[in-house]
Amino acid sequence: MRKLTLSAAALLLSACASTVSTTKPVDRNEPRRVVGTENEVRVDGEVFGDILQRSVSIPVKYDVTNGRQAAIAIADIVPYTSYDEDTQTVTVNIGSEVPGQMLLPRLIRIAPGEKKSFSTIARVNIMVPTETPMTRIPRAIALKINFLGDTAQFEQLIAIPERGIYDPKLADELFPKWLERNETIYTNTLPMHWMAAPAEPSNAPSRRRRGRG
Q1: Angle 46-44-69 (CA atoms, 0-180°, nearest 5)?
Q2: Torsion-angle region of 40 (φ positive above 0: left; ψ -120 to 50: alpha; else: beta)
Q3: Sign of the C-alpha dihedral, residues 197, 94, 186, 101?
Q4: How far apart are the C-alpha atoms of 83 and 100, rounded to whole Å?
Q5: What's the rounded Cα separation, in Å, for the pair 189 and 88?
Q6: What whole-number distance in Å separates Cα of residue 68 and Cα of residue 91?
Q7: What are residue 155's phi and psi, to 5 degrees?
C-alpha cells in the first residue's frame, strides 16, 4: 500500500511547497472559486486560469477554516495532481494521506476557530491519447485537502523549521496513526477549457518553387 501512495520524500525535496500567512484570503465573491466542508472544517479555493493542457502549471489559493473545538494540521508538501477519465476531472491533492517512509513532512497547525490562507502551484501532467471526437478530455478541476484531525500524536512535526525530517523509525511509528487520523475534504468542480497540444512540425524538407529564367 505504501508503495502505491504519495511519495512524500520526493515532494519534500521539491523547490516550493505551499506558502502561508503572507497569502491574502480567498475572495468569496470570485467566480473562479470552489468550496468544500466536512465535519466543521471548511475549504475555500480559488483557481487562477481556465486552461488545461497536457502539461501546465496552475496557481491556486485556498483557505482552511477550522470550526472544531480541537486543532487540525496539514502537511506542508507540494501538491500533486491526478486525472479521472470517467469524470473528466483533474484533482489537486493537497496535504498527504500517508507520511513518508523515511522523510516526514512539516505540519501546519490550525487552531480551533482559526482560518489560514495558503497559495501554491498545481503542476498538471496528463497523458491523453491521440484525440478523436470520442476522446474523454479533461473538462474540470477540483481540490482535495487531506488533514489530520488530531494533532496530539504529531507534535514532533508541527511548525518545525525544516521542510521535512529524516527519521525512518518515527515514520514507521506514525504510519498507522496517520492513516487513522487522516480526513479528506473534496471541493466542488470548476469548469475548465482543454487546449490540445499544437501539431508537431513536419521534418520533411519543403519544396522550393522554381524561379524563372
Answers
A1: 155
A2: left
A3: positive
A4: 23
A5: 10
A6: 26
A7: -60, -30
**Helix (H), strand (E) at residue 121:** strand 115-125
Beta-carbon contacts of residue 206 (< 8 Å; ≥ 6 apart): none
Give the strand pairing for 193-194 and 51-52.
parallel
Using an 8 Å Cβ cutoff, are 80 and 6 in contact?
A: yes
Written as one string, the DSSP assignment of 27-85 is -TT-SSEEEEEETTEEEEEEE---EE-SEEEEEEEEEEEE-SSS-EEEE----EEEEET
> Could you tell me the end-to-end alpha-carbon distance of the chain, in angstroms, rounded to an integer?
75
Residue 127 one-letter amino acid: M
Q: What is the pLDDT of residues 70-127, one digit of tens each?
A: 999 999 999 999 999 999 999 999 999 999 889 999 999 999 999 999 999 999 998 8
Global pTM reads 0.80
How many angstroms separate the CA atoms of 93 and 109, rounded? 18
Cell numbers that stand for 141 in this block: 478541476
What value does the mean pLDDT of the chain take? 84
By the 10 Å C-beta count (0-12 exposed, 13-18 middle, 19+ buried), 208 is classed as exposed
Q: How far is CA 47 from CA 104, 171, 175, 212, in A?
A: 28, 33, 32, 58
